[in-house]
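re the bet — no i am not wrong, look at it urself. input seq straight from the record:
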Amino acid sequence: MLLEQRVLAKNDGLARRNAAWFDDAGLLVLNVMSSPGSGKTTLLARTLTELGPKIAVSVVEGDQETDFDADRLRATGRDVVQINTGAGCHLDAEMVADGIRTLRPEPRSVIFVENVGNLVCPALFELGEQHRIVVASTTEGEDKPLKYPHMFRAANMVLLNKIDLLPHLRFDVDRFVRNAQLANPAVRMLRVSADTGQGMRAWYDWLSERVDELAANTLS
């Protein structure tokens, strides 16, 4: 337990340093987390494509092994840096700082950090990010927010993905929403389909609002 506390304390210090750096550089950093198979990479690929050239976007891609997802995202024409964690189950503040230095993003850029896919470890490690996004899916159980409350408690936004599959599933959306609100009454939630594009406009509007806030803060 003492070793874990030391590791978390060291990471928290680096995360605070990252946060100051991101603010000074005018970078909007979004930590995107989910369980495996939620459609996180598909959602990001569609987002990178449809945001268009008006918003500068790049990605720090985290996986234990392979660069398959990074290649999918690079195909959108955006800059992507791959970080493989090996046996590690999450990205930490130092890894993300190294990745962003490699990307060398321009001011007022959006940086998506696609974290390693699980609902436990990534919730424990701050990165210095301004917002935490959790991607859930209708192919998972409605009880996920109660089983993994720390993840949902830390989230600013929950994207419930794969809503196009609802006619074929026994998934109670209202129950999922109630459970997420039990974990985090203040969480914002959107229903989307990264495959068909349903609901994605509301997600893009939310991102645009965050970019506008960044620009206002940078100018002030």
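see?? The two ends are 43 Å apart (CA to CA). told u. also The first strand starts at residue 27 and ends at 34. so pay up
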